[in-house]
Amino acid sequence: MERSITHGTFTVERTFNAGVSKVWAAFADTAAKEKWFKGPDGAPNDHTMDFRVGGHEHNRGEFHGTVHRFEAIYYDIVPDRRIVYTYEMYLNGERISVSLATLEFTAAGDRTLLVLTESGAFLDGFDKPEIREHGTEELLNAVAKSVE
Questions:
Q1: Spans of all domains in the chain
Q2: Distances (CA, A) of 141 to 65, 91, 114
Q3: DSSP 8-class letter at 40
Q4: Which of these, 16, 40, 72, 131, has the minimum number of CB atoms within 10 Å of its CB?
Q5: Rounded distance, CA 101 to CA 117, Å?
Q6: What angle do CA 41, 46, 52 make, to 5 degrees?
Q7: Measuring CA to CA, how many Å separate 61 from each of 81, 89, 95, 100?
Q8: Which of 1-5, 33-37, 81-85, 113-117 has the lowest mean pLDDT?
Q9: Could you give the angle at which helices 20-28 and 129-147 cross, rounded to 10 degrees?
Q10: What is the homologous superfamily of the domain 5-39+49-147 according to CATH?
């Protein structure tokens, strides 16, 4: 296998038609997060979340015989303001990326502006920054459906 590393950083801004506390809960509360942070309906999924500084989150799902795994550690949490965490993504047991992600929550009247910035190391051609950015935008679409 050819070994390579591609670095990439992107920022996605999204305004939700919901207050900060509701959008915050979509990321901080396990039950609320499980409404949107999952694979396609019917796909097996294993999710655990210890939302605190130093806490870990694990999400493993299988779709069409491919196993996806997310492993995160939370480094900074300021309620209703920001979350900073690192995470690794695995595909069939092979690490495909390591990222630092920040989420910033700002009230915009009765709406919420979320600014998500990610800086990643994408390994061995399994993933690319533009693919991850697209996937992140799709996840934020799912967040919108769960909070609006």
A1: 5-39+49-147
A2: 25, 23, 12
A3: S
A4: 40
A5: 6
A6: 120
A7: 29, 12, 15, 22
A8: 1-5
A9: 120
A10: START domain (3.30.530.20)
